[in-house]
Amino acid sequence: MGSRTVRFKCLHSNHCCRDVVCLPTPWDVLRIALNTGEDPRRFLEFLTPDEIKGIPKNDPTWLMADGNRYLMALTRDPKTGCYFLDKKTRFCGIYEHRPILCRLYPFKLRETREGKFHSFTLHKDVGCLRCRDGVVETKPLYDLYLQDRIHQDDYATLVEEFNAEDRPGRRPQEFLNLFLEIVEAP
Ligand code: SF4
Ligand code: SF4
Fold this sequence. Notes:
Elements: E1 5-9, H1 15-18, H2 26-36, H3 40-43, E2 44-47, E3 63-65, E4 68-74, E5 76-77, E6 81-82, H4 100-104, E7 107-111, E8 117-122, E9 131-137, H5 138-163, H6 181-184
Antiparallel strand pairs: 1-9, 2-4, 3-4, 5-6, 7-8
The structure holds iron/sulfur cluster (2 copies).
């Protein structure tokens, strides 16, 4: 059955929205575009290995374009942070539609040896203040985790399709053509 709660309270330090690169899935991108009317070609950027550390070379979401590797990320300004961070309120401007990764931060899933749900704890290797002064239900978190797993598989399949056709002069932005028709149809 696993733990029903995890102790955590967000202290709104803004660290995760200002300093951390957010990697959305195509499903996140579509949800954001459809619900906010924002243009994915503006709120996304494609980062090279020099611009993002800690992602293994064999991660299935690396895009190959013109022989180089790229990761799709939410556009981020080094000073002001995420494209969607409201500059006045310092809260997420698309909170209801934000990527699953943002919803799961800083929670870390723990599973049993059999691969079943055990509990959630807090990631140790992140800059979150990790305040334990609150209680969060784990069921919605686990549902999100399972949904993200499916979305990541879909993402990897799309990337595989994209990478199978790398050619000189290709830009990583062309990856968006594989799934943006839904929001760009006339
Ligand atoms: S989408 Fe919202 S929650 Fe996610 S990093 Fe950007 S501002 Fe923060
Ligand atoms: S880093 Fe932690 S405390 Fe700061 S805004 Fe993000 S979740 Fe909240």
